[in-house]
Protein 1
Amino acid sequence: MAKVLIIGAGGVSGVVVHKCAQLPEVFSEIVLASRTESKCKTIAAQLNRPIKTAQVDADNVPQLVALIKAEKPDLVINVALPYQDLTIMDACLETGVDYLDTANYEPLDTAKFEYSWQWAYQDKFKDAGLTALLGSGFDPGVTNVYTAYLKKHYFDEIHYLDIIDCNAGDHGLPFATNFNPEINIREVTANGRYWENGNWVETAPLSINRVFDFPAEIGPKKIYMMYHEELESLVKHFPEIKRARFWMTFSDNYLKHLEVLGNVGMTGIEPVMFEGREIVPLQFLKALLPDPASLGPLTKGKTCIGCFAQGIKDGKPMAMFVYNVCDHQECYREVKSQAISYTTGVPAMIGAKMILEGKWKKPGVWNMEQYDPDPFMEDLNKYGLPWQVVEVDPSAIEG
Ligand code: NDP
């Protein structure tokens, strides 16, 4: 029996709130707060149990502190934007409350995400006796837990890790991003980066691709290498990994739109002057693009996200693939949201449950792979993201 404060009322939040509301024995009280309270009320109206809503500007620590002091939650779930991670962590420290998020901190004016800013809070959380769980979405999140699970049950050492994220869904619109457009486009237009023999190797954006044959009738799809934040924590916590890469599928149509938008400067994050005032092109573009939350009823098809690991077990080479397949329309039927928000929101709920049940709770700042993967993997099967683990031919990833 615990009280949670959920901050942010976008696509991911909608799923977290629905999933927490389905488990009153764990989440006995839910408060949903965001910049625009009406969005909290819209989510609240979809539930079959009452929750409380509130307005808060999560860039403002005193406002957050006042809200946390008034509500006294056991845990704050941050599903606002990565820009708010540090202010929410500061407010949790000031009020003595545990913290969870789904994406690592990113400064607004630099398209650069890395854990250094949040790892720097390690001693503060430890000294305060508080738990901070970082990146409890799918990727990062479940992909970190998958890696820990493979290591625990199938490998003595993982040498090569490929995280593969496929969205084979179609929303039928000319161009839309399936989570926050600003964060999505910053991520996709950044240089690629992978880990090899103790160093980061940088590549031009989306310059390396190959074809991967996905399970569950998805079939062969082009995957593009890019940087993703879980690579940083995974190579730190599994130093035996010689090479770690992240791949994502994109349709030709998405890439063509992105190329044109990039060429005309619409994906820039530097302010430009327009009719006497400064605007940030990417923020303006976000205002024009469909709200990811509105894609729910439109999107058909499946997602498949997994970890392809190669290494050794008892001196013999071993290759395994662990993955989940999720259906956009089934997600919509259950929680009024497409699979991208679903695959992020369910692990956020499970991460929160792990902390509140004391299974994943120790003072400090932690990435998902630093805890025992087994109870989390069990809950993925129970709460909507069942997984498969199969032995594979290593050549399947070599394209
Ligand atoms: P949305 O843009 O749909 O929602 C963000 C919400 O945060 C909005 O309700 C927004 O309010 C609110 N918000 C923004 N700024 C503030 C602020 N200063 N104070 C209070 N509330 C604020 O994003 P998503 O739901 O798609 O993504 C949520 C998070 O999940 C992001 O951090 C994203 O990076 C992460 N994510 C993680 C994934 C993973 O697998 N790990 C995958 C996908 C997303 P308003 O409505 O007023 O703008």
Protein 2
Amino acid sequence: ARPIRLTDYRAPDFVIPETRLAFDLHPTQTQVKATYRIERRGAADAPLVLLGERLILKTLRLDGVEVAPEAYALTPECLTLSGVPDRFTLEIDVEINPQDNKMLEGLYMSSGRYCTQCEAEGFRKIVYFPDRPDVLSKYTVRLRAPKAGFPRLLSNGNLIDSGEEGTFHYAVWEDPFPKPAYLFALVAGELDVLEDRFVTMSGRTVDLKIFVDPGMSARAAYAMDALKRSMRWDEETYGREYDLHLFMIVAVRDFNFGAMENKGLNIFNASLLLADAQTATDLDYERIESVVAHEYFHNWSGNRVTCRDWFQLCLKEGLTVFRDQSFSGDQRGHAVQRIKDVKMLRARQFPEDAGPLAHPVRPAAYLKIDNFYTATIYEKGAEIVGMLKTVVGAETYRRALDHYFETHDGTAATLEDFLSSFEAVTGQDFSPWLKWYVQAGTPVLSLSATYDGDTQRLTLTVSQMTPPTPAQAHKAPVPIPVRLGLLSGAGAPLSFRFAGETVPEALFVLTEARAQWVLEDVTEAPVISALRGFSAPVKLTLTEPEAHRFARFRGDPDPFNRWEAAQSLAKALILDPHGAAADYAEALRATLTDPTLDAAFKALMTGLPTEMDLAQSLTPVDPAFIHTRRKAFKAELAAALKTDAEALYAALPAETTFSPDAASAGRRALRNALLDLIVAAPDSDADRSEATSDQAGAQAVRRPEGEAPLERDAAKPLSAKQKIAKAHYHDARNMTDMMAGLSALSQIHGAAYQDALEDFYARFKSEPLVLDKWFAVQAACPHPETLSRVRRLITHPDFDRKVPNRWRAVAQAFAANNPAIFHDASGEGYAFIAEEILSVDRFNPMTAARLIEAFGGFKRYAEPHRGLMQAVLERILGTEGLSKNVAELAGKALA
Ligand code: B3K
Ligand code: ZN
């Protein structure tokens, strides 16, 4: 297959100002009739090329006259008409089969309902069209279906007509805003609705409707609340008002990813929309809030101003992620939000940028654009917008964005257009920022300091280097904003003079490969607190005594750097085979007992770096060493803090009434983080007998299928921590606490865990979203027995590969969240995931391909992992009938 390249971009030869679609919905034989008004813009002899896949072409009429088969060319991917006039009307009738569509792209059925997913290239699976984002058209859509079973007929825009035809009915929708085909959507079926209203800043009333499975509308209340807050926030923060009279969201169970911003008709994965205390965790609430906001914000950043081509994907995604992160920060607190966002960036984007799948935020070529909905495009893209805001300041940023939205409204724009808006309002040159978009790799920022006590001068020498990445050997410097402050040796803030002013901190921007910054009036040899708030997505190296990190851990006024200091200390101590936890425990004790810090922040401070985080700091990666060392360090930390943790835990009783607000969620997060620490403590002498359960589990891997787990053979008394975890689970009044209890039990393993799993299943077997959690917790359990358990889980009657949520609950949870077992030296974990990828690739390549990432960094691993992972990738790549999606990623991973 030939890659698509950015440099090959050509403006379309034809535009389609008007599109009329008529759907006669049928599970296996849906008839689609399209009528386009077409105008030539390119060369007089350019043929009209329409894209279409898996369509049965019925008729083709040009200006009302049937086109003879010899006048057009048809291939499995396109329909070409030569010698067409400069202006004409084209009518196309096709037939499609939604029920057979298990790739969940185009028009498909989910739980007996019709729904669509068009981004990026799904519209061509509905009807022939120039399916590219720079062809914007005004849509009028007629839907027709039996009244029975399909009482709701929804599409984009406003409902302009509806009526009945015997046992059938129809609805006609008109979207007044020209849009690219990827934003088209329809939904038909039986749905309950939760309704509300929003009055916009100019006084227009917008009807808000959230459609869900019958009986579930109460669970949409939180999403509705989040939607109204998002609408208000975008008005207040960006001056962006909603533009239609109606805004609809539909929840579906079968969805390849999170949600989709179709104009006026967002479609969501039900897992990111439905919530109540009994079925959703605080993390679910948090994600619902941010995804509802994200999709809503796309109405401006993505829909009103869209992308010229898919290479500009980050124009809408990076900007919209930055907007949703700012929103969440305003709703829930910026310090905690920033830490969570950076954790996510480091967990997903940094490894991507350091491995064979590294690509620029604006890639130069692709085989399947689906493969580029990556952490780099989304998260690194958001970081670039954040840096721009940091350097120009909040007020100028707002003016630049106003300029961007006003200048490009109704058009398909590029990243250059985005940067020119900053140039327009500042008069400065922003072209150096383009390097962030076109260069892959995470820059390394090195900092060293010399202090002269006589002159009270601190000289900082800074330099940057971006490592080579595939197809990019040499990198130019990028602009790096560095927020920096100083602390005294005792950990108190230390002001200094810079550029003639005495300041508590300063913002420097490194634009060259190296620079020196001189800080004056520095009254003592300071502790440096650099890159505050993680002011740039770089890896900072700063050689300094351990005591400096402890000083920041204890008292950096910048909460991000306080957390960062703790994390970097923990990382160093865990990876050092002799690292001891005593000092770390002291500093954490001070944090946990500090009354000025909020609970959510303390919860984050209590969490140690994950095994995935640690893997990034060790070459070659030895997953078993990381697992063992982390467990040992955590046990030592937990033992040192046992009394405090238990007292703090007891002082935070479970709340009897549930509120999803940030403060309540923060208290639950802290209580659950304490539980996690408590169960990590080694057993006391009285509980020693329990220690055998680990060994029993290890043997269980080799136990013949169907035999009862060994640990259940003998009824052993529960250890003290098992009792705590068990009580936590059974006393839980909400899903957050229940899952925390279950996951604590999974860490200890043993009979109490198995009992809780059975109890959980019995309670929630008819709640698919909750059952996903039941599968996921088992797949992520770091006990060796999990290797055989995942094989049993895929034979469970509730397991279904065709439902992406359920499949990910096992496959993704295992491959991404269970490094110790996924990387088992036997290679069984790799083999399991390879088989899963290949099974799902047969019908849903987009979803299957995402799991290739699990093998992406194989070259960084020690043997036998490296060789085993390589063999698995080779086996995948050598499989006959492999999709383009999986082939592209597996091929790159091996290159
Ligand atoms: N724009 C969609 C993502 C589409 C993914 C297609 N493979 C959701 C979002 O980012 O808001
Ligand atoms: Zn998005």
